[in-house]
Protein: P-loop containing nucleoside triphosphate hydrolase protein
Amino acid sequence: MDELEEEKEDWFNDLSGGQKSKVELVRKVFLMDECPHVLLIDETMAPLDPRSKSLVMAKIKSFCAGSVVLVIYHTDVGRDKESEESGEVIECVPSNDFFDGNIHVEDKMMHLRPVC
Structure:
């Protein structure tokens, strides 16, 4: 039994940060019968490479379609292309067809910011 425990620990410890994040999501969310009514994901996607991030976002969107999913996600702010063309620059957060909205927190104030 000790050998199995040691092998399990070695296996997980050898994973990259992104791989560990995926294992934790599968273990804590996707092995459930259904997604919780409210799911809070805190920086889980930060260590993922772009392809993995896209796959995880698609799986969450599909599996949790009837749930409220709150994602704490630090990302670079982009600029809305249409607003740049009109001369009015609006900062936005890349959505990748995942986020429906964005609440930006700065200086202890919450601001709605569009997705692009």
